[in-house]
């Protein structure tokens, strides 16, 4: 409930802040990127949350990156160094009218431009939350809620790597402790394949556990995997198709926006998958790592110390 209230509040705040001449908001930035307002020749540093108006110009540094949200709800990434006018950039945004995706763009505007007092202070803590750890509690910490819903047959499971563990065992069983899926990996994530399940049977519960092959006593909690209800699964599948059409470009910014959609629908595994994909696409853009860390914290999947 608290997450939902926060979601609606951020959408409201994002919507009311779009002024008439405002074309874009800056969601992610890397490098010494700058902006000049209107006819001004004075360049200043471009900040996250910056409003870019129609008459403004922006300069992207060599090796820099900008992720912008257009007022229509569309997104654009700039990776080539140079000077751009906001008006010309606006014409490059897909002409197709934005649909349901706009509210998720607005949510990310609010989330990634949050001005909370601890944002700067905890920035690197948010970024480091997925890093390798020395665990003193003899447990593997997976980024999975105790009650996780799924709608797809294949889902990404991610956990904090534990120093000293070379091979992890990922296992899914039914309520009778009968094996449904099992795999081994040297990575800190795995795709669990549930394609053999009857996806139409939304009353079943499955148990997920990650353990160390070298030390079976070193393991995660047991997480319940629940198929999404039939009616909800149909709606989510339709909406996912619609959003994939709106955000068809394979970009980190679009992945983060899709993550917000899955988070709202309590499909946390899918949200984690999209955050991971965003960081893989743009591994040097810190803003996406911060957004990922904040997502993990507000869903009680990680503790920022």
SSE blueprint and pairings:
Blueprint: H1 2-16, E1 22-30, E2 34-36, E3 44-45, E4 51-53, E5 57-60, E6 65-70, E7 75-78, E8 82-85, H2 86-92, H3 101-112, H4 123-128, E9 147-150, E10 154-158, E11 168-173, E12 179-185, E13 189-193, E14 206-212, E15 223-227, H5 230-246, H6 252-264, H7 268-281, H8 286-298
Parallel strand pairs: 9-15
Antiparallel strand pairs: 1-4, 1-6, 2-3, 2-5, 5-8, 6-7, 10-13, 11-12, 11-14, 14-15
Helix pairs in contact: 1-3, 3-6, 6-7, 7-8
Give the overall form.
Answer: globular
Largest sheet: 5 strands, mixed
The helix/strand series, from N terminus to C terminus, equals HEEEEEEEEHHHEEEEEEEHHHH
Radius of gyration equals 21 Å
Class derived from helix and strand content: alpha+beta
In DSSP terms (H or I, runs of 4 or more residues), the helix count works out at 8
Beta-strand residue fraction: 15-25%
Distance between the termini: 24 Å
User: How many structural domains?
Assistant: 2
Task: Report the mean per-residue pLDDT as an integer.
Answer: 85
Could you state the CATH homologous superfamily of the largest domain?
Immunoglobulins
Find the count of extended strands (DSSP E, 2+ residues): 15
Proportion of residues in helical segments = 25-40%
Main sheet: strand order: 9-15-14-11-12
CATH class of the largest domain reads Mainly Beta
CATH architecture field of the largest domain: Sandwich
**Per CATH, what is the topology of the largest domain?**
Immunoglobulin-like
Stretches where pLDDT is under 50 for at least 5 consecutive residues are 4-18
